[in-house]
Design brief:
By secondary structure, the chain is α/β, with parallel strands linked by helices. It is built from twelve helices and twelve strands. Strand 9 and strand 10 form a beta hairpin.
Length: about 350
């Protein structure tokens, strides 16, 4: 007689209550809090909020974040115990932690270099997230996709532990729990513009403002805190702009000389490729960046609008061995700037002719 092994299908769903999470946090001697690598505003806000909740409850905690980092986002780290990990030269936490809290992700691929360390501690790992997909990274998990940010979920943890959201404020609303929560909420909702900014997110924002969050100052510290070199690089990119594909695609390029002349860095280019999309005549935008031995290409496209179909930039990028999503993709072409531009122009024309057949 043969016995077939039990079939287990993993469901990335809540398997414990926030009350249980709260009591495990309260009982811990030392908590390690981590999130996805290359942390965004919600990831950083969620780590800081968890650290501040622990501090309010006199539980020792340390945040571990894997880079690279956008320096402007780190503006909101105060006196928090945060360890930065360089993924190229990783180092690991010691054995002094008896609880691990992973926030704003539950995917092995996203915790990157810390994955083996987390894997060894499965029973002591708690996962708090608002994404629809993830792995069995933790023994206890609370996943709520209705939360506009992971920090919105952490508000419920603070409430469970009876921590005042204004905790930690220095009088100007700085370094408070509320500030960390607001950073996650504001950045994940595109400063309350995206579809995930619903009545519940505005209600939460109102609650955070009422305990002293200085929203205008936070906006300036996060979004108007880039180096001038980045702005100069952006102006070089924009002045290189020309339109291709019958005028519906913007093509911009940055050479090594542009970096040398402005002092801007490749990691400061986030968002630059999107700038041309403010023009209504454009359906897609492409940025070519000259790097060592290859040209890095970023593609963005707008969603379908009225009678205009969207350009599937994932498909275009895949013809160069790259990929991504329908509206955001990337590729590398081993060539010169001018030749790469020509190849992209041809690939886009082929794709547009094909889709209009
Ligand atoms: Mn998030």
């Amino acid at each position: 007689m043969t016995v077939s092994p039990p079939v287990t299908t993993f469901c990335y769903e809540t398997n414990c209550s926030l009350a249980e999470v709260a009591s495990r946090v309260q009982a811990a001697k030392r908590v390690l809090v981590t999130t996805h690598s290359k942390p965004d505003g919600d990831a950083i806000g969620s780590v800081l909020a968890t650290l501040r909740i622990c501090r309010a409850r006199s539980v020792a905690a340390e945040g571990w974040m894997v880079g690279p980092f956008e320096e402007n986002l780190l503006e909101v780290v105060g006196g928090d115990a945060v360890v930065r990990v360089d993924p190229k030269k990783p180092h690991f936490p010691d054995d002094s932690f008896d609880l691990v809290v992973v926030v704003d992700t539950g995917a092995w691929s996203q915790v990157e270099v810390l994955a083996p360390w987390i894997r060894q501690r499965h029973a002591s790992v708690i996962n708090l997230d608002h994404h629809a997909r993830g792995d069995a990274i933790a023994s206890s998990r609370v996943v709520d996709v209705r939360c506009g940010s992971c920090t919105a979920l952490l508000v419920r943890l603070a409430d469970e532990l009876k921590v005042d959201l204004g905790y930690g404020a220095d009088g100007a609303g700085r370094y408070s729990l509320a500030e960390a929560l607001y950073v996650g909420l504001a950045t994940d909702t595109g400063w309350f513009r995206f579809a995930n900014a619903r009545a519940s997110e505005f209600a939460l924002a109102a609650r955070l403002l009422s305990v002293g969050v200085q929203k205008d100052e936070l906006y300036a510290r996060l979004e108007q805190c880039h180096r001038l070199e980045r702005v100069l690089l952006e102006s070089r990119a924009l002045s290189s702009l020309r339109t291709i594909s019958g005028g519906c695609v913007a093509l911009m390029q940055l050479s090594k000389d542009d970096f040398a002349a402005t002092g801007g860095l490749p990691e400061e280019l986030a968002g630059v490729v999107n700038l041309p999309l403010m023009a209504s005549s454009l359906r897609a935008s492409v940025l070519l960046v000259e790097q060592e031995g290859a040209i890095k290409v970023s593609f963005r496209s707008k969603p379908a609008l009225a009678s205009r179909a969207c350009i599937d930039v994932n498909q275009v990028a895949s013809t160069f061995g790259g990929g991504g999503h329908v509206h955001a993709a990337g590729a590398r072409i081993a060539s010169t700037l001018s030749d790469a531009a020509l190849q992209i122009e041809r690939a886009l024309d082929r794709s547009l002719n094909h889709s209009s057949l």
